[in-house]
Amino acid sequence: LIIMINFINMAFKRNILITGGAGFIGSHVVRLFINKYPEYRIINLDKLTYAGNLANLHDVESASNYTFVKADICDFDKLIDIFSEYKIDGIIHLAAESHVDRSIKDPLTFARTNVMGTLCLLQAARQMWEECPEKYDGKRFYHISTDEVYGALRSDGTYFTESTKYDPHSPYSASKASSDHFVRAYHDTYGMPTIVTNCSNNYGPYQFPEKLIPLFINNIRQGKPLPVYGKGENVRDWLYVEDHARAIDLIFHKGKIADTYNIGGFNEWKNIDLIKVIIKTVDRLLGNAEGISEHLITYVTDRAGHDLRYAIDSTKLKKELGWKPSLQFEEGIERTVRWYLDNQEWMDAITTGEYEEYYKMMYKG
Ligand code: NAD
Ligand code: TYD
């Protein structure tokens, strides 16, 4: 058996562990890597929390260079087993609790997965890689983070750059900030070849419908209220998820060790303006008069500690590695709305059954 495992491990040029591959962004990264790199074996490690959904990968799950492992990144012993079984040489770490509203209700789960889970993964990688004769040569630990670690901007045209001071406000962003620090500490202390990227808000297919865009598309379709926090004046910088996945691919292969890259869309929208675009698009694609669903807009109590504005300056990534977003926002939104309307079974499987209780908890109509 050991001979067979060694043979399979050697048959692939690289063995890449992607954590959180059953989630929104992770599933796009897994798909891109499986299709673009048949010479790599992609090991998707995911705990399958409420946000993990293997249906996000239905089109690639039988690929010969793909393996799924159900595991918790906090389970150190299991990580060690996975590292030795698959001879992992690259890690793209996306597994996380990712929703700010949940972090306000249940911060401990965020500290457990985002902080302790990332630390377990770092420590497992360190232990396994330091035992190899070649040590850290050819290895890479790439940590996916968020622009939310930088805090909030005023509406004054300033941007987050790679040197903006960390100033997280929510339990979610505080847990991500902490994990970023641990990743950098593993480089500085042990020489682990790490990279961190901080990306702005993503949108596109397969996003869990607790996040603004899929939640609102689905509620408009069902004629349910659209809960706008506060006055709807908060600003987010939106990037199509496949553009983020392309950036991750580029940075994983060409990014400088120990460096940080900001990834963003140069695409700022005030929530209420974005919501009106979504309403118009859904109305039109459903054959209704554009804007007829605006009456669903319902202003609700603001999110506690709600950051006013996020905006990323991704000039460094453009200059150094030549990346820029490929999609215009209008096209991205059109594609996204169309995808959710064409994939109602995917949505309905989530919003009924076990997720109903969660929906009730979050007061989403
Ligand atoms: P998501 O919530 O859709 O998916 C997270 C995945 O991680 C799920 O599949 C879940 O099952 C898995 N997971 C959670 N806890 C785990 C654990 N303890 N062990 C193993 N797996 C676990 O999240 P997403 O929106 O795809 O975000 C992915 C990453 O990108 C996160 O690290 C997030 O902080 C970061 N990010 C997200 C955005 C965004 O707009 N969504 C923007 C910037 C950065
Ligand atoms: P969200 O998709 O949760 O992403 P993030 O909080 O990480 O930016 O929210 C995007 C914006 O939309 C944010 O300003 C909060 C707001 N929002 C609402 O107004 N209503 C909602 O029901 C949700 C989920 C978000």
How would you describe the overall organization of this protein?
The protein has 365 residues and is α/β, with parallel strands linked by helices. It contains 13 helices and 12 strands. The chain has helices at 2-11, 24-36, 76-86, 100-105, 107-131, 171-190, 212-222, 241-254, 271-285, 315-321, 329-342, 344-351, 354-361; strands at residues 14-19, 40-46, 66-70, 90-93, 140-146, 194-199, 201-203, 226-229, 235-240, 260-263, 268-270, 297-300. It has a 7-stranded parallel beta sheet with strand order 3-2-1-4-5-6-10, sandwiched between helices. Helix 6 (171-190) links the parallel strand 5 (140-146) and strand 6 (194-199). The longest helix is centred in the first third of the chain and has 25 residues, at 107-131. The radius of gyration is 20 Å and the shape is globular. The protein starts with a helix and ends with a helix. The relative contact order is 0.12. The model has no long low-confidence stretch (mean pLDDT 95). Residues 100, 201, 211-212, 215, 227-229, 234, 236, 271, 303 line the site of thymidine-5'-diphosphate.
Helix and strand layout, with pairings?
Blueprint (H helix, E strand, L loop, with lengths): L1 H10 L2 E6 L4 H13 L3 E7 L19 E5 L5 H11 L3 E4 L6 H6 L1 H25 L8 E7 L24 H20 L3 E6 L1 E3 L8 H11 L3 E4 L5 E6 H14 L5 E4 L4 E3 H15 L11 E4 L14 H7 L7 H14 L1 H8 L2 H8 L4
Parallel strand pairs: 1-2, 1-4, 2-3, 4-5, 5-6, 6-10, 7-9, 8-12
Antiparallel strand pairs: 9-11
Helix pairs in contact: 2-8, 3-5, 5-6, 7-9, 9-11
The structure holds nicotinamide-adenine-dinucleotide and thymidine-5'-diphosphate.
